[in-house]
Amino acid sequence: MRVLHAPVAMPAVVASDVAVDREGWWWIDVLVDDQGVDQLMQLGDDLGLDHLGLRDAVDDRDLPKVDDFEDHLLVVLHGLSDEEIVTYQVTCFLTESCLVTIRRHASPAIDALWEHVQRTSDLSTGRPDELLARLADLLTQRHMAVVEVFDHSVDELIEDALGAEPTLIADVTQMRSELARVRRVVQPQREALDVLRRSRSPLITAAGQRRFADVFDLAYRTSQGFDAARTALAEVLDAYRGAEARQATEVNKVLTVYAAIMLPLSLIAGIFGMNFADMPGFGNDQGWIYAFAAMLVIAIGSLAVFGALGWIRVPSGRQAGSLLGRGLVEAAKTPVKLVTTVVDVSRRPAQRTRSHSRNRST
């Protein structure tokens, strides 16, 4: 591999590297800032590149696409940043003897490929279209890495969903947002790679078509993986709602049983607490013992009947206390929720439906 200087001066370009193979084709990688537009346009004039495509590479953010200008191809691809789950644009111009990559942000994929080209001579034995296919492969592999990370974490999400963890909704919402960010460019990039593998342009050799076909297969699996991840998140939310409803059912069941037991006891206490002079047993010193005994028999009998009917299981004291405690907390919060809903609706009548659904989901 021979390393040559760029054929034009680009003083405002932040980084510019040029690599050439034995036959003399160029790879020009340009990381530009706002002041490098004029020099970039001059580079386009020298190489005969489309001016509008060069301008869009700096000013606009396009979805992945392929444009054929006969003597050169414009290929827009997207990569994945290292710092966070966001994508960046790489605009590629492919000519017979040159590959130009233009970007406004750091690209881990381009940096890795550039180091490979410098270290390994066999990467420079092909044509520019094959190098473009290698770059597309690296960019797509980083998209696939997002799916693999999700696959590793989905079991933990399902476990949290079955346990109705309170933080699950926030985690799923954030993960869905991050997946949607990448998924937005995965499908167009797959279509762009499909165009390249089927291209009849003389700039795409048979070897390049084979490489683009391999990358297309990877992009197809990536697209399928994002669709599966979206479905899995919906299933996690369904499992969470089911677990939350199951817990609420258990709480309501315990509260109902306690209420059913306390009702006859309250009735007895109410009758004998009326303080009428001719009440039965009013003057008996042992009357309170009989009343307590009747209440105890009724309570035990009610528990036995509910257990025989299968309405309740006999929980441990800790479980029963936990269920009852959650039930009391939910009962205490209910009036606050209702008041909040009414206030929100009265203040924002135009957003009544959305406010109601948000408060209900909390």
Instruction: Please indicate the count of domains.
Output: 2
Rg, Cα atoms, Å: 35 Å
Structural shape? rod-shaped
CATH fold category name of the largest domain: Beta Polymerase, domain 2
Highest CATH level, the class of the largest domain:
Alpha Beta
Helix content percent band: 55-70%
Oligomer state equals single chain
Record the strand order, biggest sheet: 1-2-6-5-4-3
The number of E-state strands comes to 6
* Share of β-strand residues: 5-15%
Q: Which H/E pattern describes the elements?
A: EEHHEEEEHHHHHHH
| The CATH H-level homologous superfamily of the largest domain | CorA soluble domain-like
State the low-pLDDT regions, or none. Answer: 1-16, 327-362
Helix segment tally: 9
CATH architecture of the largest domain: 2-Layer Sandwich
Largest sheet: 6 strands, mixed
Give the CA-CA distance, first to last residue.
62 Å
The computed structural class is alpha+beta
Arithmetic mean pLDDT: 75
